[in-house]
Amino acid sequence: MNSEEQPFSEICRRLVDAYHPKRLILFGSQVWGTPDQDSDLDILVEVDETDEPVWKRPRKGYKALFGIGFPCDILVRTSEEIEREGAVPATLMHKIIADGQVIHGE
User: Locate the Polymerase nucleotidyl transferase domain: which residues (predicted)?
Assistant: First the structure.
């Protein structure tokens, strides 16, 4: 495992431990563009259900990633929200579902 894979594997492990998600989907420049030294990891966390408002959901993930030393952006959505939002063409969720890379789950 090279030095770039180590933080990535640890980020995945910590997010899985924090959320027990159905899927983790990588998107953004790491998948669609040309990542550089300033690029972060954009990760969609798919959960079954939650009562938390959308804006509060990433807190648990950021707390789990504290000290990792690699910038990450986290979106947390339920399966229902992903299905609904992803059905709308020209939205970020549609692009994530169509072109993102599943890194955990199916």
Answer: 10-87
Query: Contact 39/96 with Cβ under 8 angstroms?
Result: no
CATH number at residue 28: 3.30.460.10
Asked if 83 and 54 touch (Cβ cutoff 8 Å), the reply is no
- State the pTM of this model: 0.90
**Structural domain count, the chain:** 1
Which range of residues forms the domain containing residue 68? 4-105
> Which regions of 1-106 does DSSP assign to beta strands (E)?
23-27, 41-47, 72-78, 101-105
Q: Write the CB contacts of 23 (distance below 8 Å, at least 6 apart in sequence).
A: 44, 45, 46, 102, 104, 105, 106
Structure tokens, 74: 């986290």
Taking only the tens place, the pLDDT of each residue in 20-68 is 999 999 999 989 988 888 888 999 999 999 999 999 999 999 999 999 9
> How far is Cα 100 from Cα 83, in angstroms, rounded to an integer?
14
